[in-house]
Amino acid sequence: MSVKKQIIKTKPVVKVTFTTEAKDANVVAVVGDFNNWDPKAGELSKLKNGTFKGTFDIAKDASYEFKYVIDGTFVNEPESDSFVWNSFAGADNGVLAL
């Protein structure tokens, strides 16, 4: 699992690439504050090696809670910038700081 950030100097966004291994999964998405927790808006593409990957333009100068949804199961990114307790979910969420 990984998160890579590419700052775009001419735009108020950061290109964020989410990558996670889920060889046996059928559907993987990244959901969070940046896409209203909508799995359709955060679908990742499956690569031949079983890794799922997607790149999104996300507004910079903010922090966002997020998780992966792997075949309906919420999973944290271990390389998140930090973690925060979310009482709605009853669990920690990863934090993406841009």
From TrEMBL:
CDD domains, A to Z: E_set_Isoamylase_like_N
Any one Pfam family match given in the protein's UniProt record, by short name: CBM_48
Domain named Glycoside hydrolase family 13 N-terminal: residues: 15-74
Lineage top rank: taxon: Bacteria
Keyword tags: Kinase, Transferase
GO BP: carbohydrate metabolic process
GO molecular function, one term: kinase activity
Protein name: Glycogen recognition site of AMP-activated protein kinase
Organism of origin: Flavobacterium noncentrifugens
